[in-house]
């Protein structure tokens, strides 16, 4: 490792230690934070409840276009928060933000709705905690970074691998300790089915869902049984497929662990090669190469067939000339060169003794709960001190945009693309420039760095 990498990983370890011991500042302790959530589904509630475990905040507003989901979330929040109050409920985020009384706004919508509400929340004076990927196209991401800087907002993205205890341990014990030697190649992957197979029918829109608002700036599709809730990632109209869902986590994790900036180039090939009978329009097979000059990071996903390593179906394998590090959300293992048994290993941290409710919470990814709590502690500390968090919007923009460019490359027949941070353009031909921004459905207007 070079000196810059050593200092960066050391600071990461120190930041984790500080976050783990986070105590609200005097100002925060005197003024209860007022929080609003846009998108009250699975991950929105899970993330919100982890925040309530570490901070005596008041959730004052909830917004969702599904009235049934909204009412359910309001009841759950009232049971969880110390005041016992039921939050105000909205079906339109614009009405919620008109109040201008929120300190933090969480955006946990489908991907095609990340950019516009996040920017609106920053303009309303709130700091933002948003899910990954930050956007569905490159220009949306540029606009979000520009808004955060223009309005001085603290924006954390829920790429919580950067706050995962066992991964921080791996950085300290393996990478910072130099046990891998010279690193030249990384493989990242996902071999889960991801629910894209099958051909569920189009059905009438349920009465409790405002489908016009749910669709928002995306193209209007017939409502399908898998569209809402949680199946929308099978459609590129609302997402960036498995690359935008799963690759961004692993790519961002590797960038953080190895202190990597923008890839020098991105190229990708793939398509729907096997599961052709379903109605999903995302790739079932894809390979992407993120070239960081001295380190090449290669992504592969496949939604069918056997896994190369069943112990690491969604993971990163970092290769050095002295050893290999395998890392996932569940564990890590370090293998010395030529050895079959790990020399070092660690597992996900479960904190049931301190947070027994984690055992029974519906749909909670229990292995991720400790990471999300630490992610929140880091964020709240940065909100208090007006500093940039570990998953600052700019870092998440790099990871999100690189994954978006991988999908652009597929659309362009595997063309090699690059992002120029100076000109803020994707290089690779005229069509590549056009794909930087998706068309918006009227009356919604696509945000740009200049428009925010």
Distinctive features:
single chain, 452 residues, alpha/beta, Rossmann fold, Dihydrodipicolinate Reductase, domain 2, six-stranded parallel β-sheet, 16 strands, disordered N terminus
What this model shows, in words?
This protein is an alpha/beta fold. The protein has 2 domains: 182 residues, NAD(P)-binding Rossmann-like Domain (Rossmann fold, 3-Layer(aba) Sandwich), CATH 3.40.50; 231 residues, Dihydrodipicolinate Reductase, domain 2, CATH 3.30.360.10. 34% of the residues lie in helices and 18% in strands. The protein has 13 helices and 16 strands. α1 crosses α11 and α7 packs antiparallel against α12. The longest helix has 19 residues. It starts with a helix and ends in an 18-residue tail after the last helix.
Question: Quick gist of this model?
Answer:
The protein has 452 residues and is α/β, with parallel strands linked by helices. The chain has helices at residues 3-20, 26-30, 42-54, 67-80, 93-98, 115-123, 138-151, 165-175, 211-215, 241-258, 369-385, 393-411, 430-434; strands at 34-38, 58-63, 88-90, 104-107, 127-130, 155-157, 183-190, 265-271, 285-291, 296-302, 314-320, 323-328, 331-336, 344-347, 418-420, 425-427.
Present the secondary structure layout.
Layout: H1 3-20, H2 26-30, E1 34-38, H3 42-54, E2 58-63, H4 67-80, E3 88-90, H5 93-98, E4 104-107, H6 115-123, E5 127-130, H7 138-151, E6 155-157, H8 165-175, E7 183-190, H9 211-215, H10 241-258, E8 265-271, E9 285-291, E10 296-302, E11 314-320, E12 323-328, E13 331-336, E14 344-347, H11 369-385, H12 393-411, E15 418-420, E16 425-427, H13 430-434
Parallel strand pairs: 1-2, 1-4, 2-3, 4-5, 5-6, 7-10
Antiparallel strand pairs: 7-11, 8-9, 9-10, 11-12, 12-13, 13-14, 15-16
Helix pairs in contact: 1-8, 1-11, 3-11, 6-7, 7-12, 10-12
């Amino acid at each position: 490792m070079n000196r810059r990498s050593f200092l960066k990983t050391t600071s990461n370890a120190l930041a984790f230690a500080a976050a783990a011991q986070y105590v609200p500042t005097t100002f925060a302790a005197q003024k209860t934070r007022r929080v609003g959530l846009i998108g009250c589904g699975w991950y929105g509630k899970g993330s919100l409840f982890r925040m309530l475990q570490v901070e005596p905040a008041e959730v004052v507003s909830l917004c969702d276009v599904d009235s049934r989901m909204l009412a359910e979330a309001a009841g759950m929040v009232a049971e969880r928060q110390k005041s016992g109050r039921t939050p105000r409920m909205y079906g339109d985020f614009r009405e919620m933000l008109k109040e201008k009384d929120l300190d933090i706004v969480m955006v946990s919508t489908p991907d095609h709705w990340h950019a516009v509400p996040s920017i609106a929340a920053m303009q309303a004076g709130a700091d933002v905690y948003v899910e990954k990927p930050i956007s569905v196209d490159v220009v949306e991401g540029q606009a979000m970074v520009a808004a955060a800087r223009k309005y001085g907002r603290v924006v954390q993205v829920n790429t919580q691998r950067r706050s995962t205890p066992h991964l921080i341990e791996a950085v300290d014990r393996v990478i910072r300790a130099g046990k891998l030697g010279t690193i030249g190649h990384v493989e990242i992957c996902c071999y889960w089915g991801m629910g894209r197979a099958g051909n569920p029918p189009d059905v009438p829109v349920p009465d409790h869902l405002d489908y016009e608002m749910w669709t928002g700036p995306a193209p209007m599709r017939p409502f399908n049984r898998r569209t809402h809730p949680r199946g929308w990632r099978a459609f590129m109209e609302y997402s960036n497929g498995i690359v935008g869902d799963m690759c961004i986590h692993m790519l961002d994790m590797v960038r953080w662990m190895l202190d990597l900036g923008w890839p020098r180039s991105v190229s990708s090939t793939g398509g729907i090669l096997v599961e052709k009978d379903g109605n999903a329009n995302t790739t079932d097979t894809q390979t992407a190469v993120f070239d960081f000059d001295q380190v090449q990071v290669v992504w592969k996903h496949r939604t069918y067939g056997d896994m190369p390593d069943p112990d690491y179906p969604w993971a990163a394998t970092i290769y050095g000339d002295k050893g290999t590090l395998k890392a996932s959300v569940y564990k890590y293992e370090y293998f010395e060169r030529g050895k079959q048994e790990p020399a070092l290993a660690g597992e996900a941290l479960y904190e049931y003794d301190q947070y027994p409710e984690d055992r029974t919470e519906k749909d909670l990814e229990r292995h991720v709960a400790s990471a999300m709590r630490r992610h929140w502690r880091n964020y709240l500390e940065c909100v208090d001190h007006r500093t940039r968090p570990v998953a600052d919007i700019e870092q998440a923009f790099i990871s999100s945009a690189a994954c978006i460019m991988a999908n652009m490359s597929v659309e362009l027949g595997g063309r090699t693309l690059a992002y120029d941070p100076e000109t803020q353009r994707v290089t690779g031909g005229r069509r590549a420039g056009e794909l930087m921004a998706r068309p918006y459905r009227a009356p919604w207007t696509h945000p740009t760095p200049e428009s925010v």
